[in-house]
Design brief:
- Helices cover 34% and strands 21% of the residues.
- It has 413 residues and is of the alpha+beta class.
- It folds into 3 domains: 2-143, Sandwich (Tumour Suppressor Smad4), CATH 2.60.200; 146-283, no CATH class; 288-389, Beta Barrel (Thrombin, subunit H), CATH 2.40.10.10.
- Strand 13 and strand 14 (309-316) form a beta hairpin.
- Helix 1 (148-224) packs parallel to helix 3 (258-282) and helix 2 (229-255) runs antiparallel to helix 3 (258-282).
- The radius of gyration is 54 Å and the shape is rod-shaped.
- It starts with a strand and ends in a 42-residue tail after the last strand.
């Protein structure tokens, strides 16, 4: 069976051609067997598609065209068999043709639209000689190709059309990129402004907090004047550190150095916390602690032999005379020694009482001694038996004796 191609739409609409030889090349190129107008049919590529007879079956294949080839409305990506009345479109908006199978007796040739009859099979009485050989290639009787000037004019026109289309596409892309760039820049500046504002708010809050703490420190110093000079001096130094760092933070913020601002903020936070701790310590009623517990505190002597006399502090934790002291006072540094004699003298008494060693801790610098006094002894008040309630920054008061003897001392807290 021969192949008949009927052009349904486009500049060649109505043209019918019959082909017996394979392949049938389709496109805008001058050598195409089915050649579309190179200036008007711009959806068709130069070498768009090819129809081939294989094993008594006609197949079509797209040749990598720009807009693709569709058979019965479906894009093809490989060789596709053609049947009678199949419709082929070159590009989604390109010309549409109908493929028909006709008998071998139908002569090859091309029939112009004006000469095609109304019947399904066009009359074959007025074929337009194509000047093609049975293989479909031009012969000596073929029409003369366009002149060089005509080709140049057609090429120049196609170039102008293609350049105009690419220019419009490039302009649209440029506008899109410009809009995206503006959006990204706006987002960047907004984010940067928001972060700067958040930092300013944090710094202002930190400065307000330090102002309040500095005022509280000044009040605490006034309260401590003449009472606990050491704590008062520490408060004054800490207050000066916070004030200095606050000024440094303002200077760093004015200079705009992010690293310097972060470092000064860290130092100011630490100094502020230290000042708060000292203020908490200044709020403790130390005189009340001394008045309540001083009678439970005693001095302890331990004779370790060989003239080694240790002196330290002990305090009563039970009214039966049970007392805590430091292990190194009564048992040496490693806890292995045992005292020959122990003596206790309470803070409010001139009398010295003998004592006995009851226990030595293997883990902490603690030991238990016992003194027997008729009627019992005063004890330390308010002992906290829950160490989990103690933490860093809680004020501590140290009471008792602090003696130096052969580099040994034992303050009891």
């Amino acid at each position: 069976m021969k192949a008949q191609i009927h052009v349904l739409t486009g500049g060649l609409a109505g043209q019918v051609s019959v082909h017996s030889q394979s392949p049938i090349e389709i496109g805008r190129h001058p050598s195409s067997h089915l050649r579309f107008d190179p200036d008007r049919e711009l959806d068709v590529s130069g070498r768009h598609a090819i129809i081939t007879l294989k094993d008594n079956r006609w197949v079509i294949q797209d040749r990598g065209s720009m807009n693709g080839t569709l058979v019965n409305g479906h894009p093809i990506t490989s060789e596709t068999a053609l049947g009678d009345t199949d419709q082929i479109r070159f590009g989604p908006n390109g010309p549409l043709v109908e493929f028909r199978l006709v008998g071998d007796g139908t002569p090859d040739g091309i029939w112009e639209p004006a000469k095609v009859q109304a019947s399904e099979e066009p009359q074959r009485t007025a074929p337009r000689p194509t000047g093609a050989s049975p293989a479909g290639r031009p012969t000596a009787d073929s029409p003369k190709p366009p002149t060089t000037a005509a080709k140049a004019g057609n090429t120049e026109q196609r170039v102008r059309i293609e350049v105009g289309r690419q220019t419009r596409r490039l302009r649209a892309m440029t506008v899109v990129l410009f809009v995206v760039l503006i959006a990204v820049a706006a987002a960047f500046f907004y984010q940067n402004h928001r972060q700067r504002r958040e930092r300013e708010v944090e710094i202002a809050a930190l400065q307000a907090r330090t102002d309040s703490i500095l005022q509280a420190a000044a009040d605490a110093i006034n309260t401590l004047e003449g009472e606990i000079e050491g704590l008062g001096a520490a408060l004054r130094q800490s207050q000066a550190d916070v004030g200095r760092l606050r000024s440094s933070l303002a200077a760093a913020q004015a200079a705009g150095s992010e690293e310097e601002i972060a470092e000064v903020r860290r130092q100011l936070t630490d100094a502020t916390q230290a000042l708060l701790t000292l203020e908490a310590a200044a709020g403790v009623d130390y005189q009340a602690i001394v008045d309540t517990n001083q009678r439970a505190v005693a001095m302890i002597w331990a004779d370790l032999g060989g003239g080694n006399i240790q002196i330290g502090t002990a305090f009563a934790v039970r009214s039966d005379g049970t007392m805590l002291t430091c292990r190194h006072v009564v048992a040496g540094e490693d806890g292995s020694a045992r005292p020959l004699r122990l003596a206790i003298q309470f803070a409010d008494s001139y009398q010295v009482f003998p004592a006995q060693l009851r226990a030595v801790s293997n883990e902490a610098d603690l030991a238990i001694v016992k003194v027997n006094i008729r009627g019992g002894v005063p004890t330390v008040q308010g002992l906290n038996e829950r160490p989990d309630t103690l933490g860093v920054g809680i004020p501590v008061a140290a009471i008792g004796f602090h003696w130096h003897h052969e580099s040994h001392s034992c303050p009891v807290v």
